[in-house]
């Protein structure tokens, strides 16, 4: 299958060099080399809109569960995408990626955290008020529909999504909207579970969900929020389907990276 690929990325079997942003309390960052080879998977889940009745009392434990399951690796991985000045964090949830993005763009940049659930954004806003770094003031929380973004054309330097596209019903329309609001030459970075065509990888992934993710979630009282996960991964798009989706809506280049021993994946597409 012919695909348009990002010319500045290595082959899929190579380790992907990235930059980790490390910031001080004034949000002035410096860069350290970081190689994102195979490592423990990250976990950040959201319920689909039909399951959006979770209460605000349950939301604060999500980030703790993410850290516990991944030993903190999901926060390192998310830094792979942090390198822009005006960013939309799509399906932002309780804001953990938005806070990382704000540290990178600094107090003169702008981060928009968009989510379908008002309860999630309330938690994110509360967390923002408790944090001391000046750059966190540059985050704005917006309630909105992934398939009808409330922004003008060519508005953002970059878009990030952490485990959110899988739960959007009309993925084509959501990708079309991301293309519309991105500036020319800018990129979207989409991370989620990898729907592998390798039956061994799929079997390992389902064992992990059944024997690690759901039991740990149950310990936090969140079993109902996580038990649908396996079926949602089965219904998700494969590597080829995600790349083709991006190209079909107009992105000039699209490249998918398998990470976390192929249990996770990251699509990078350029407008």
TrEMBL record:
Keywords: Chloroplast, Methyltransferase, Plastid, S-adenosyl-L-methionine, Transferase
Compartment(s) where it occurs, according to its Swiss-Prot or TrEMBL record: Plastid, Chloroplast
Any single Pfam family the record assigns to this protein: Ubie_methyltran
Catalyzed reaction equations: demethylphylloquinol + S-adenosyl-L-methionine = phylloquinol + S-adenosyl-L-homocysteine + H(+)
The keyword S-adenosyl-L-methionine belongs to this UniProt entry's keyword annotation: yes
EC number: 2.1.1.329
MF term (GO), any: 2-phytyl-1,4-naphthoquinone methyltransferase activity
Top EC class of this enzyme: transferase
GO cellular component: chloroplast
CDD domains, per database record: AdoMet_MTases
GO biological process, one term: methylation
Major subcellular site: plastid
Family, per entry: Belongs to the class I-like SAM-binding methyltransferase superfamily. MenG/UbiE family.
PANTHER family, A to Z: 2-METHOXY-6-POLYPRENYL-1,4-BENZOQUINOL METHYLASE, MITOCHONDRIAL, METHYLTRANSFERASE
Protein purpose: Involved in the biosynthesis of phylloquinone (vitamin K1). Methyltransferase required for the conversion of 2-phytyl-1,4-beta-naphthoquinol to phylloquinol.
NCBIfam families (alphabetical): MenG_MenH_UbiE
HAMAP family: MenG_phylloquinone_subfam
Protein's name in the database: 2-phytyl-1,4-beta-naphthoquinone methyltransferase, chloroplastic
Provenance organism: Pyrus ussuriensis x Pyrus communis
High-level lineage: Eukaryota, Viridiplantae, Streptophyta, Embryophyta, Tracheophyta
């Amino acid at each position: 299958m012919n695909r348009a690929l990002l010319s500045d990325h290595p082959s899929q079997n190579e380790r992907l060099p990235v930059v980790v942003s490390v910031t001080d309390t004034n949000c002035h960052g410096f860069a350290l080399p970081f190689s994102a080879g195979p490592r423990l998977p990250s976990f950040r889940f959201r319920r689909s809109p039909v399951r959006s009745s979770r209460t605000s009392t349950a939301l604060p434990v999500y980030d703790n569960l993410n850290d516990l399951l991944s030993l903190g690796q999901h926060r390192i991985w998310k830094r792979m995408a942090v390198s822009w000045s005006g960013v939309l964090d799509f399906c932002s949830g309780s804001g953990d990626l938005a806070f990382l993005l704000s540290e990178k763009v600094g107090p003169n940049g702008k981060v928009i955290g968009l989510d379908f659930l008002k309860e999630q954004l309330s938690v994110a806003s509360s967390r923002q008020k408790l944090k001391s770094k000046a750059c966190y003031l540059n985050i704005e929380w917006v309630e909105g529909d992934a398939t009808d973004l409330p922004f003008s054309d060519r508005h953002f330097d970059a878009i990030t999504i952490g485990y959110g596209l899988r739960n959007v019903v009309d993925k084509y329309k959501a990708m079309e909207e991301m293309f519309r609001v991105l500036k020319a030459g800018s990129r979207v970075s989409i991370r989620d579970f990898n729907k592998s065509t390798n039956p061994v990888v799929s079997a390992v992934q389902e064992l992990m969900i059944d024997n690690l993710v759901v039991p740990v979630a149950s310990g936090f009282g969140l079993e109902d929020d996580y038990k649908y996960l396996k079926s949602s991964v089965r219904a998700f798009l494969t590597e080829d389907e995600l790349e083709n989706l991006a190209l079909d809506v107009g992105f000039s280049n699209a490249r998918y990276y398998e990470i976390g021993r192929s249990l996770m994946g990251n699509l990078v597409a350029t407008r």
